[in-house]
Amino acid sequence: MHAWPASEVPALPGQGRDLRIHDTATGGLVTLDPGPVARIYVCGITPYDATHMGHAATYNAFDLVQRVWLDTKRQVHYVQNVTDVDDPLLERAQRDGLDWVALAEKETALFREDMTALRMLPPRHYIGAVEAIPGIVPLVERLRELGAAYELDGDVYFSVGSDPNFGKVSGLDAAAMRLLSAERGGDPDRPGKKNPLDPMLWMAAREGEPSWDGGSLGRGRPGWHIECVAIALDHLGMGFDVQGGGSDLAFPHHEMGASHAQVLTGEFPMAQAYVHAGMVALDGEKMSKSKGNLVFVSRLRRDGVDPAAIRLTLLAHHYRADWEWTDQVLQDALDRLGRWRAAVSRPDGPPAEALVEELRAALTNDLDAPAALAAVDRWAALQEERGGTDIGAPGVVSRAVDALLGVAL
């Protein structure tokens, strides 16, 4: 599966700084010190509807991570999946009388268009669940050989008790985990499971649903968590730098995935930091496809909204914060974009070297994008009030905003 084209990232003067970021597993800030190649895995979409602002906010956060690393002159090995077979996709296709494969391809293509418009840097590897099945089956078989998996009516489950580090990603107690499991795709009340929290690794073929040859597992399709584990281990290996996604993935998805990988490899941890973006609400409730309270990136683009303003709307909120989309937050971003473009359109301006360092300081401090925007606002205000004599300054500002914030002025 192919990703989307990359926009050029301008090189900036000076030296970038190492990133300090909030790690869900420890509950505090950690300083990441990758090698020459920084490794990041970000969980992708289930393509049964278009990209909404909640998605965009999540991928914007991890785009900033990449840009901070690139500013340190590191390479970035970024991997993202597409869950192109799963219950929500099949249910949507059946509801609308669509072929599930065609639906997945259509929505994945639209997602690529949205990411391109928003100048999100693409992953090096963009892998669908279906194409990952040949690598998933051996992992499930290996977990079974290790005594970490068991069969229930043809389905194969992972035993969370097989991982002594289970629970260290989310830090939740068993009661909270059980509630979230029921809400987020688990089946804690299924009779016969060793532990209510045990997640499915391989679902035996159901009548009328797609299935694949699972070797000794029989025909079926993979569970949600093992999909990402197989892709991450194949392309990044164990102990990669950042596991990313929305805050609703900390449990069960990232918790379960970490346990799968740790039992398979005998190593801990799966990732050096678990980084989670906040949720975006509309009309007082989290945007979700099940509720239908969505603001779509593609719809805004069709209405003529500049993608740079959409991105500035996202950047105006700290990536870990939960916030609400309103017409006003978009208008604020449009106004800001106009001020910035006017400021860099002049032939000279106030010196910009200090601004570049302010941007670096803000972003390396847990991706504090609002502080970065405020720094550019101050430079633009000086430009409007007094102008300046530094002929190169507007160009430096334009390149810095592009390189570090992904906004083309």
Topology (SSEs and partners):
Elements: E1 20-23, E2 28-31, E3 37-42, H1 53-71, E4 75-82, H2 87-96, H3 100-117, E5 125-128, H4 129-145, E6 149-152, E7 155-158, H5 174-183, E8 200-204, E9 220-222, H6 224-235, E10 240-246, H7 250-265, E11 271-277, E12 280-282, E13 285-286, H8 297-302, H9 307-315, E14 323-324, H10 327-344, H11 353-364, H12 369-385, H13 393-405
Parallel strand pairs: 3-4, 3-10, 4-5, 10-11, 12-14
Antiparallel strand pairs: 1-2, 6-7, 7-8, 8-9, 12-13
Helix pairs in contact: 4-6, 6-7, 9-10, 10-12, 11-12, 11-13
Describe it for me?
With 409 residues, the chain is of the alpha/beta class. It folds into two domains: 20-286, 3-Layer(aba) Sandwich (Rossmann fold); 306-405, Anticodon-binding domain of a subclass of class I aminoacyl-tRNA synthetases (Four Helix Bundle (Hemerythrin (Met), subunit A), Up-down Bundle). Helix content is 43%, strand content 15%. It is built from 13 helices and 14 strands. It has a five-stranded parallel β-sheet with strand order 5-4-3-10-11, sandwiched between helices. The chain has a four-stranded antiparallel β-sheet with strand order 6-7-8-9. Strand 10 (240-246), helix 7 (250-265) and strand 11 form a beta-alpha-beta unit. Helix 4 (129-145) packs across helix 6, helix 9 (307-315) crosses helix 10 (327-344) and helix 10 packs across helix 12. The protein is globular and about 75 Å long. It starts with 19 loop residues before the first strand and ends with a helix.
